[in-house]
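Quick one, probably user error.
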């Protein structure tokens, strides 16, 4: 069983944990991130995600969920630290109004894009520089729910291991492969390798696309390309597309939220 530790002051240990909340570089350097939310915590443990620490607020009486989850996490990960953090300091480890009952420090599991080998008939979702963690988390959740094989982010956008992404994904981050590509060139190389094994169709999405998303069946295996919230798809990704899908717009809005467009297009591809 892990040794019980305490954080009672503004120690260096606390600063590191605090940095995991907002600082992507620190997360990457340390290879760890915060997991918050009942469902996200439950699903991280259910999927056997590596856990480095269980953090709890000092002095609080845990609910039966918190007590059982702490015991299960420490049992499954004997090397994990068990840390009681002074309650006011613990509250600084979340950006929510109400502090959670426990937090996990998870290990960032690197999955290079080149090692992603989708199965027959798969749909892989590729998101260009998503700026909103909420949108990225929702895309992960919907991709998992509708049966996409993986989610790939491209370029500098929201970090897959940002606690807000983890929370919005409601734990789907732990259920399906998710990886970050540096730019369109890396996606093009990976796609070329996949195309040596399978006839992959690449669908871009754009409100001015050539083809109505509901016009006839779509082909799989497929890549579904989604653009940035502000400027749409980068040229380097758009150039990879065989077809550009349009979700017809009836009202005065010029485009859909990217996570909503993703849900509609992915449903059309996977139904
Ligand atoms: C908010 S939109 C980007 C709008 C931006 N003004 C542009 O130039 O494309 C973000 C992404 O959602 C998807 N999207 C939004 N509305 C869409 C629609 N009606 N049809 C297909 N895709 C759409 C596309 O992937 C788009 O790049």
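Nope, works fine. Designed sequence:
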């Amino acid at each position: 069983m892990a040794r019980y530790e305490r954080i009672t002051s503004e120690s260096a240990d606390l600063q590191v944990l605090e940095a995991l909340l907002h600082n992507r570089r620190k997360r990457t350097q340390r290879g760890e991130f915060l997991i918050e939310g009942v469902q996200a915590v439950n699903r991280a443990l259910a999927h056997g995600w590596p856990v480095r620490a269980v953090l709890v607020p000092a002095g609080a009486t845990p609910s039966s969920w918190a007590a059982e989850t702490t015991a299960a996490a420490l049992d499954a990960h004997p090397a994990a630290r068990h840390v009681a953090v002074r309650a006011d300091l613990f509250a600084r480890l979340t950006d929510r109004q109400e502090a959670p009952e426990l937090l996990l420090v998870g290990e960032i599991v690197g999955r290079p894009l080149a090692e992603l080998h989708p199965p027959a008939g798969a749909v892989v979702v590729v998101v260009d520089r998503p700026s909103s963690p909420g949108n990225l988390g929702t895309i992960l959740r919907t991709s998992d729910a509708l049966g996409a094989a993986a989610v790939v982010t491209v370029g500098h956008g929201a970090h897959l291991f940002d606690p807000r992404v983890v929370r919005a994904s409601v734990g789907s981050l732990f259920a399906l492969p998710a990886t970050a590509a540096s730019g369109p060139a890396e996606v093009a190389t990976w796609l070329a390798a996949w195309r040596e094994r399978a006839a992959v169709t690449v669908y871009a999405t754009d409100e001015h696309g050539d083809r109505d998303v509901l016009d006839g069946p779509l082909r799989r295996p497929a890549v579904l390309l989604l653009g940035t919230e502000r400027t749409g798809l980068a040229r380097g990704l758009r150039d990879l597309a065989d077809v550009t899908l349009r979700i017809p717009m009836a009202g005065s809005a010029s485009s859909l939220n990217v996570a909503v467009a993703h849900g509609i297009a992915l449903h059309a591809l996977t139904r």
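The mean pLDDT is 96.
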